[in-house]
Amino acid sequence: MKLFYFLISFLFFSCVNETSDTSIPETQDNHSMIVVSNQIEEDITNDSLYVERAKINIQKFRFEEALKDLEKAHLLDSTKGHTHYLIADVLLELAKQGKGNKESVHLSLNHFQFAILYGSDSSLSFQKGGEILLYLEKYEQSIELLLQSLSLDRNNFTTYNLLGYCYVELNDIENAISCFKQSIGIKSDDEEAYLQLGNLYYSKKDSTAIKYYKNAVSINPTNRIAYYNMAMVYEDLNDFSKSQDAYYKVLDLKMDDKLHIDALYNLGVMFQENLEDPKNAIDYYLELKRINPNHYLGIFQMAVCYQKLGDVMHAEQYFRDCLNINPEYKIAKERLEQLLSDNEKYK
Known about the structure:
By secondary structure, the chain is mostly helical. It has a domain at 26-120: Serine Threonine Protein Phosphatase 5, Tetratricopeptide repeat (Alpha Horseshoe), CATH 1.25.40.10. It is 73% helix and 0% strand. It is elongated, with a radius of gyration of 27 Å. Mean pLDDT is 91; it is low at 7-24.
């Protein structure tokens, strides 16, 4: 079973700094922080000062500190839409960092809704509310918010990407393709949109996918998922040389992760089944076994290769190794039993 990486699962796309100004230099930042903190000491009921200090902390990615000030500002005046927006955005950013939970994500959505209610940051509030609903798998509701965001700002490529993901989840391939193309129309170097277009065309068995994968790796030559999926398209086209080249890019760029393991397995299967070269296939399976000794599928295929080469001893060994890892793997049991019954040596 060969694996295809259909989606880069970005839990969230947008970043809290989208609405921030250019980063403040460290010295200016420290000075501003001191000035604002002194002003707060003199006027602890001024909610705008807490917001100002929170924005400085946001610039420096100190989100927990920013949240404390924003919550104080909110207690002082709960009708400020921009405060709601900033609270929502910081909660969202903390969730992206693994410092939140589903409850805080729902709270973030609630604050985005209040930001809209009070007429602040509406386009981004709709967008990020849609982003949260996408994460919560409420795709149709997410689409509603994202379309509202686009009605206010049609030039945000992130909104089109999020909308594209919703359509992917709903298996609406044509609308998904349209969204990712719109994203590229706005941001010509949108690597993620190119990758997803490659995936979508591949899902349609359309070799146009290769063009989009090539665009993705031209933007980011280390995009291993694009190389991996490109390799599978070439393999489907029986262009095994180009398929191998793409798999080798995956292997060269990083070692010993899941993508690396799956590329080795696919190369083994290619040599074993398509190129009818069990000797070379075994080399890939042995490397796979070195990295992941419990990869029973690779070990099973290696046994099949040895059996095809007439090496009964190694075939039996690897069928048994496969069953030691997965005793319920029925086909390995059957192949081992057949191997033993077919060879007088084992009678």
